Amino acid sequence: MDVTFINRSRHVGQSYISSVFTTLWAFFTVIPFVYRIRPKLILINGPGTCIPIVIASLLLSILFLIRRPKIVFVESICRVQSLSLTGKILQYLPVNILVQWPQLTERYPKTQYIGRLV
Questions:
Q1: What is the DSSP string of 37-92?
Q2: Are 68 and 25 in contact (CB under 8 A)?
Q3: Neighbours of 34 (CB within 10 A)
Q4: Edge-to-edge strands of the sheet including 111-113?
Q5: How much is the pTM?
Q6: CA–CA separation, 90 vs 84, rounded Å?
Q7: What is the DSSP letter of 10?
Q8: Which 3 state secondary structure label does DSSP give 27?
């Protein structure tokens, strides 16, 4: 079993401006990983670390270097009233966003209510 460490896109308390640079760094370091693995399914949750993986997989598929994987984002159960920043970003990409509270589907029509996973 291989373990790969991925750079964080944003550290707790880090400013949004400086997080642009750390996200770009994470994106460029994750491209070879996504290319090597060639995932068929990417199941992600919560942290912004998943954003570079999603963007890298979509970019590599646009360039016909890998087949486009199915991407599923499961929002945290503690997100009752609004999506996390990651969820808000991913709603503009071809990603299935699953939420655990029905009222989120009313506010964010691109989401799908799946019930609670606890």
A1: H--SEEEEESSTTHHHHHHHHHHHHHTTSSPPPEEEEE--TT-SSS--HHHHHHTT
A2: no
A3: 23
A4: 41-45, 70-74, 96-99, 111-113
A5: 0.89
A6: 10
A7: -
A8: helix
Are 69 and 93 in contact by the 8 Å Cβ rule? The answer is no
**Residue 89 corresponds to which amino acid?**
I
- Give residue for tokens 């589907």: 105
**Domain positions in the chain:** 17-113
Sequence letter at residue 114? I
Per-residue pLDDT of 16-29, as tens digits, reads: 888 889 999 999 99
pLDDT tens sequence across 88-116: 999 999 999 999 999 999 999 999 999 99
C-alpha–C-alpha distance, residues 101 and 21, integer Å: 33
Alpha-carbon distance values, 69 to 74, 83, 99 (Å): 16, 23, 20
Contact predicate 83/58, CB 8 Å = no
